Amino acid sequence: MRSEIAGLRDEIASLRGDFGAEFTVLRSEIAGLRTEFKGELVSLRGEFREDMAEFRAETRTSIAGVRTDMKEGFRQMDVRLRFLEEHFFLDQSAKQASA
Question: How many helices (H) does the chain have, and how many strands (E)?
Answer without folding.
Answer: 2, 0
